[in-house]
Amino acid sequence: MTHVGYIVVDCTGLNVNTGSEQTIAGIYAKGIAALDTGKPILAANCNMSGAPCSPVSIVAWKEGTTIIATGHVFRLSITSADKVTVTNLVAG
Fold first, then answer.
1. 34 contacts 27 by C-beta, under 8 angstroms
2. What is the pLDDT of residues 20-60, one digit of tens each?
3. What's the distance, CA 66 to chain centroid?
4. Could you tell me the residue ranges of all domains in the chain?
5. Is the pLDDT of residue 1 over 70?
């Protein structure tokens, strides 16, 4: 199977440096669409403490109706209600 190119998911508004739940409108549908392609995924337009981040390659999968995504040192849990919780895997 050949996978050409990356799928870029626009994560505007997502702050990866917070442990609290965030609502990012449409992020679940974007994640499902990206997963359905079978191509590598880049998360773009995230921010860390208010500063823009470069796009990051992520590994993602579905657990029931939740998308789990990991990239760099972060794990994201994305619900079908567009609720996102970010966990720093290094800090705990």
1. no
2. 899 999 999 999 999 999 999 999 999 988 899 999 999 99
3. 12
4. 7-88
5. no
Reading the block at residue 7, the tokens are 């799928």
Beta bridge partners of 63: 66
Average pLDDT over residues 61-66: 97
Instruction: Single out the residue of 15, 88, 9 nearest to residue 56, CA to CA.
Output: 9
Contact 82, 23 (CB under 8 A): yes
**Distance between CA atoms of 17 and 61, rounded to whole angstroms?**
22
Q: Is 35 helix (H, G, I), strand (E, B) or coil?
A: helix
- Token pair for residue 75? 């794990």
- Please give the single-letter amino acid code of residue 91: A
